[in-house]
Amino acid sequence: MTTPTLNPSDLSFDVTEADFDQTVLDRSVDVPVLLDCWAPWCGPCRSLKPMLEKLVLAYGGRFVLAKINTDEAPELSAALQIRSIPLVVLFINGQPAGQFNGALPEGQIRAFLDQHLPPAAAAEAEPATADDEPDPLDDIEALIDSGALADARRLLDMLPPETRDARHQRLEARLKLASERPVGDAAALAARIASAPKDFEARFQLAALLAYGGDFNAAFEQLLDVVLRDKTEARERARLQLVEWFVLCPDAALVDRGRRRLSMYLN
Q1: Is 27 a domain residue?
Q2: What is the pLDDT of residues 148-187, one digit of tens each?
Q3: What domain range is 111 assigned to?
Q4: Global pTM exceeds 0.85
Q5: Looking at 179, 197, 214, which one is the last position of a domain?
Q6: How many CA atoms lie within 13 A of 176 on its CB side?
Q7: 12-14 and 64-69 as β-strands: parallel, antiparallel, unpaired?
Q8: Residues marked as catalytic
Q9: Does 100 share its domain with 147?
């Protein structure tokens, strides 16, 4: 089997049931074809797709990427016995050579490819550099961004303790905030607080709604007011929540101001 010279536009393409035999099976005689089985409603599929597109470029023609919408390919889905997506199948010489399910992290996908692809020619092989090493935290962040929270939690829990640094802590906080969708009506909660400033439960609920929506400035204000007004359990609860959200807030100046006010209120 030879690896032909390919233009970048040839490396990644969409396929249908009508052209599957030609674009996947026949083509896999000349170059391995990685088939990405996806659907528009599938959150993990959305995070996996750009990773596969990145890898097909990184591997420089050692395989090509075919993408098929399973919603539009019921017969092929039945033939491949697809039970869940994303499903990725590698075809070589017209036959499946391996497959995996789910939005795996980049390192695991590279391991899968390296296990099944024919070895690269010596002239094409390049020494790996530190910048080439995949970062599993990038994969987890992409999963959270796409809404694939269960997959993100699974991968986050798999990380060894020695890798759990400040970024790991930030992703933990992001995942917790994204997973615990708050309930309540912001206007009604604000009215409760206006009539009863020490209604701390209303402040906690409103702060959660604000933080979930990305308004950390207003969320911080609610919790800092709890710290200022209370001397018991509510103060400590607010302090802990502020510390957790300080890690998430992208506005460094806002976080710095919040930390200074928290320190001042506690002393």
Answers
A1: yes
A2: 788 888 888 887 777 677 788 888 888 888 887 888 999 9
A3: 8-116
A4: no
A5: 179
A6: 13
A7: parallel
A8: 42, 45
A9: no
